[in-house]
Amino acid sequence: MTTSHFLADGAEIVLVGTGATWSEGPLWIADRGVVRWSDIPGNRILEVDPTTNVVSVHRDDVEFSNGRTLDLEGRVVQCSHGRRAVERETADGVEVLIDSFEGRRLNSPNDVVVASDGAIWFTDPPYGILQAHEGHLGDPEYGGCHVFRLDADGTLTPAITDFDEPNGLAFSPDESELYVSDTSAALRNGAGNHHIVAFRPAGDGTWRRDRIVYEVPDGHPDGLRVDVEGRIWTSGGAGVRVLTPVGAVLAHIPVPETVGNLCFGGPDGRTLFIAATTSIYRIETMTTDAAAASRKGR
Predict the structure, then answer these.
(1) pLDDT tens digits for range 251-275
(2) How many angstroms separate the CA atoms of 143 and 91, rounded?
(3) Helical H runs in 61-170?
(4) Which of 150, 209, 211, 249 sits in a 20 to 30 Å window from 43, CA-based?
(5) Is the Cβ–Cβ distance between 264 and 273 less than 8 Å?
């Protein structure tokens, strides 16, 4: 592993908890001091306390939840393959925020972020309707795989439509760029894309493709995060890469299992938690998440 000023001195990958089938959607829940994540094929949401490494089941029969984030009020917003929806957790379960576009069902929302204005952005690839172990087999209905923006008034806008299979997404610190990963190669025997693309506003509510940031050479880019200094932390194969906004590799952090997603958390926000196949791992850093800093600044 390449050492750098954004990793803590002596930082090493540490196993936090295990027992999942395929781990995705990690999120630090500060008031509980736990990492919550999805075991998609297991159809359950798990939590682990990184101080004790004790894993518990948060909820069962969750309709194949995937990525999650916090809204500006600190509520958990998550993607549901099974419901083909974006939903928000409540004390009694979940409430569906959106599950259709122009009268047609969404594909299977995958990952989600909340912008500083409170809008919910999410990707909508087809994985939950193509794989029975990650959702319910079904047909795509609106004719694409878009990146959507859901405003507080319920307006749903297809912000990015010229993309193959969008997966992970994250804003630059000033939200002038949106980074989106394409994992279309995952179900096509390597024939699709395996890159991260940067988008910029087009001025009409849509976002235009600006550049390919990075081609993952040994896997598929999936979940990603951006730190307060603009570095991109992305999954891809058996490891995490740290990139500049133009795709220079600053570090490669090997992980014992294939990585699906990641998040920052811990008491000071500097621990990187990594969802990798059956487990959650952590590594100590010297930076924090840009989106979390934006929420604190409001």
Answers:
(1) 999 999 999 999 999 999 999 999 9
(2) 35
(3) 127-130
(4) 150
(5) yes
Q: Among 163, 81, 179, which Cα is nearest to 121's?
A: 179
Question: How, if at all, do strands 224-226 and 207-215 pair?
Answer: unpaired
Q: What is the band of 87 on the pLDDT scale with cuts at 50, 70, 90? A: very high
Q: How far apart are CA 43 and CA 64, in angstroms?
A: 5
Handedness of CA 172, 196, 184, 282 (dihedral sign): negative
Instruction: Please give the Cα distance from 218 to 259 (Å, whole number).
Output: 12
User: Token pair of 22, please?
Assistant: 């395929």
Per-residue pLDDT, 236 = 82
Order of strands across the sheet that contains 120-123: 112-114, 120-123, 147-150, 156-160
Of 266, 38, 50, 7, residue with least CA distance to 134: 38
Q: For 231-240, how does the pLDDT look when each residue is reduced to its tens digit (9 = 90+)? A: 999 998 789 9
Distance, in Å, from the CA atom of 12 to the CA atom of 82, rounded to the nearest integer, reads 36
Tokens of 141: 């209905």
Average pLDDT, the chain: 94
Determine the Cα–Cα distance for residues 115 and 132; give it in Å rounded to an integer.
32
Q: How far apart are CA 57 and CA 77, in angstroms?
A: 18
Q: Decide: residue 189, CB within 10 A, 0-12 exposed, 13-18 middle, 19+ buried.
A: exposed
pLDDT of residue 2: 46
Beta carbons within 8 Å of 180's beta carbon, 6+ residues apart: 123, 147, 160, 163, 166, 167, 168, 169, 196, 197, 199
